[in-house]
Amino acid sequence: MSEPVLPVTPSARVRRRWARYLVNERAEATVYRNLAGRRAGEEREILLALAAAEGRHEQHWLDLLGGEPRSLPRSSTGTRLLGWMAERFGSIFVLALAQNAEGRSPYDDDPYATPAMRADEKIHAEVVRGLAARGRRRLSGTFRAAVFGANDGLVSNLALVMGIGATGVGAQFVLFSGIAGLLAGALSMGAGEFVSVRSQRELLAATEPSNDADAVLPDLDLDANELALVYRARGLSEEDAGARARHVVEVAQAAERGTPYRLPTEATDAHETIGGAWGAALSSFLFFASGAIIPVLPWIFGMAETPAVLLALALVGIALLGTGATVGLLSGGPPLRRAVRQLAIGFGAAAVTYALGLLFGVGSA
Question: Which residues, at least 6 apart from 121, have a Cβ–Cβ distance to it below 8 Å?
Fold first, then answer.
């Protein structure tokens, strides 16, 4: 497919588009440099390389414009938000937003962008995805339990107080029901998270290789031993298992025999990804409680009936939008879409229980 024939003299509209690309490339390079200033080692080098690539793109638009324009438009709102966050936080949330931004390249349909630039943008999205994934792994476990604990507290206790309130009982009964739901749910969430994480760690410990046989490795026959069977059982082919077994035995026999031989430990981040059982349980308890207290606040401060219900809905709605956007950022998805989805789920559950409360309230009247 041949390249489209471009006009010799670009229109004013086209030049404005180039200028907009120029300022966005500069702003994105600044974001990566600011993030690099808060990182060290390999991550810093990767971010600086991304900033350099954005600089090459900036030069392309400068060349087309014939030099620095007299006036430039503002960069896009999303890019300015990224820059503001990168200067102040430099967190996983910035990388998650950058991942979304890199995935929406305007160059795909722009005839003035080179194929190399289009390819760069696709690769940048994967690079930022990898950096964001590192941060997500560091935030998983306890943070995951905290976010979902708060969300569960919001939804479940809002549904509870809405359902109870719709039956027509007094404000004091709604308040006590909400507090009871908070305590019961928080204890259940904490206990469930503890059992879940502890079970996962125990399962990992049971499936990871042990060092029980390390001490006898130097005594194995180099040409006739069953060590290859161990590696075949772990998934290696017969040829690869044999080669690895022979190498391990050779290294073990050449090692100093003054102390029992031990194989070098292989680095794994599986336990780090899951997190600690006590930390996950405590954060789940506390964040469920912090979420569950929000729907009860109007009744705690003495409100009742319709004003209390409307205020509870408003407070929980804001909180649901916040937790939904947070989950969207951490998962690399659109924050607004996740926020609206979370709001719809929470209010949908509350609407169902409220309708049931009205039904039972009418029946008991």
Answer: 102, 105, 107
Using a cut of 0.85, tell me whether the model's pTM lies above it.
no
The rounded distance, in Å, linking the Cα atoms of 56 and 119 is 13
The span from the CA of 50 to the CA of 42, in Å, is: 12
Output the six-digit token pair for 258: 């003054």
Give the pLDDT score at 355. 86
Q: How far apart are CA 217 and CA 247, in angstroms?
A: 11
| Residue 305 scores a pLDDT above 90 | no
Structure tokens at 230: 């161990």
Residues in CB range of 233: below 8 A, 6 or more apart: none
pLDDT at 4: 47
Task: Please state, in angstroms and rounded to a whole number, the distance separating the CA atoms of residues 43 and 85.
Answer: 18
DSSP character for 89? T
At residue 179, the pLDDT reads: 92
| Token duo for residue 98 | 């950058």
Indicate whether 12 pLDDT > 80: yes
The H or E element spanning position 10 is none
In this prediction, residue 362 carries a pLDDT of: 47
Tokens of residue 175, six digits:
């308040």
Comparing CA positions, the residue from 103, 75, 89 lying closest to residue 39 is 89
Alpha helices in the chain (DSSP H): 12-36, 41-65, 77-88, 92-102, 115-139, 142-166, 171-207, 227-233, 238-254, 270-274, 277-292, 297-300, 305-331, 335-364
Task: List, in order, residues 6 or more apart from 132 with CB less than 8 Å away.
Answer: 92, 95, 96, 98, 99, 332
Confidence of residue 196 (pLDDT cuts 50, 70, 90): confident
Task: Write out the two tokens for 333.
Answer: 């998805």
